[in-house]
Amino acid sequence: MSETTDQPVVETPHGAGKPDMIVLEGVEKIYPGSTQPAVSELDLAIPQGEIVMLIGPSGCGKTTTLKMINRLIEPTSGRILLDGKDVTHVNGDQLRREIGYVIQQGGLFPHFSIADNIGVVPKMLGWDKQRIRERADELLHLVGLEPSTFRDRYPRQLSGGQQQRVGVARALAADPPVMLMDEPFGAIDPITRERLQEEFLDIQRTVGKTIAFVTHDLQEAVKLGDKIAVFATGRLEQYADPDTVLTRPANDFVSDFVGGGAAVRRLSLVELAHLELHPVETDEAGTSGATGQGTAAGSRNGVAVAEVDGSGRPVSWRHLPDRDAAGTPLVTVPISGSVYDAVDVMLDGCASLVAVVDEEGRAQGVLHWNDLVGGLRTRQGHA
Ligand SMILES: Nc1ncnc2c1ncn2[C@@H]1O[C@H](COP(=O)(O)OP(=O)(O)OP(=O)(O)O)[C@@H](O)[C@H]1O
C-alpha cells in the first residue's frame, strides 16, 4: 500500500500539448455558517476536448466544484479561467449561456415541449425561430431521438433515458465549448445507463467538448474519463488517467476508495478492436460443413466455425477446436466494446468464449476465457 501524502498527487495536470480549457487555481468554498471548507485550495486544469470525471464519497465537494465552474456557486477565494480568460467575476448569467449543463433526470422544464427545452439557450441568445427549430431537430438526431416523434412531446411523455438524452441535447444547443455534467446517468437503470454511456462517448467523438463530469460510479469514471479527479472531503487526492488511478493509487485514501476489483475494472480500458483475436470461419445455416461459405478446406480442426443466418450473423457454433460445439452457447459482443463487456457477456451467457462481431453483426474473431488468464495479445501498433 502506498504512503499517505500531504499533497494531492497531480500526475498529469496537462493534456499532451492541448491547451487547458478549464483551470481552477487555489479555489476554495466555505459555505455561510460553516467553518470547514466544502472545497479547499483546489488546483485543477482540464485540457481542451477531454472528459474529466470528478469522483469521491458523498459530501466531498464534487457538485460544489462543478457549480463553481459556471458560478451557480460563488467561490470564496481563488480564480477560475475558461479558455485562458478569468471568469471569476464576469456576469454569471452570461457565463452560463456559454457552458452546457446537464443534471440528473435531464432537469427539463415540464411545461415546455422537447423542442422548446432544447431551444432555451438559443432563444436567450436571440436566435430566430427557424434556426432554433433546425438546431433542435439536428440535436434530436444526434442523441438518437426521431425529431418528428419527439419534438412536440412534453418531458413527462418521455422515459428517463429519453429525458436524459434531451438534457444532453439541450446542453449542446448553443454549441458551448464546455459542458458540466452532474451525475447525468445516476437515476437510470443499469442497462439503459450503459447504452447512454456508449452514446455519450460516440457524441463526444463528434463534438469534442471539454467536459467536467460528476459521478458516484467508479466503473463509469473509468469508462468515460480521460482523467479522474478523486476527492476526499474538500480535497483533491489524485488527478490522473484511469489506468494510473487503478494501478497506482496516490495514497491510502484513493487505494481504499478504488478498493478491490481494480484488475477487473481495468478490463474496461482494453478495447476489443485492439486485440489479436482467434480466427473464426462461418458456414451459412443449412449448408454442410465442407461446403460452407468462408470455410477453407482442412482448416476447421484448428479454427472455430460459426453457423450464420442469412444476414451473416453467427447463431451457433458448428465446430470448436477443443470443445463440444453443440454444447457451447454462442454469445456475441460488439468489437466497439471492451474486454470488460466481453467478460460480462460470457458470464451472463455461461459461455467460455465469445464471438466478437462488427457493426453489422458479422463475426470478426473469438475471445476465449483462457485468454484472460493466459495474457491478452494486442495487435501491432496498439499498446
Ligand atoms: N448550500 C449549501 N449550504 C451549506 N453547505 C452546503 C451547501 N451545499 C453543499 N454543502 C455542503 O458542502 C459539502 C460538499 O457538498 P457537495 O454537494 O459539493 O458534495 P458532493 O460530493 O457533490 O456530494 P454528493 O455526492 O452527496 O452529491 C457537504 O458537506 C455539504 O453538506
Features:
383 residues, alpha/beta, Rossmann fold, CBS-domain, 2 domains, 4-stranded antiparallel β-sheet, 17 strands, disordered N terminus, binds adenosine-5'-triphosphate
How are the elements arranged and paired?
Elements: E1 9-10, E2 20-29, E3 39-47, E4 51-55, H1 62-69, E5 77-82, E6 85-86, H2 92-97, E7 99-103, H3 114-118, H4 120-124, H5 129-142, H6 147-150, H7 160-172, E8 178-182, H8 190-207, E9 210-214, H9 218-224, E10 227-232, E11 235-240, H10 242-247, H11 252-258, H12 262-266, E12 280-284, E13 304-308, E14 314-319, E15 332-334, H13 339-348, E16 353-357, E17 363-368, H14 369-374
Helix pairs in contact: 5-7
The structure holds adenosine-5'-triphosphate.
GO molecular function: ABC-type quaternary ammonium compound transporting activity; ATP binding; ATP hydrolysis activity
Family: Belongs to the ABC transporter superfamily.
Pfam family, one: ABC_tran
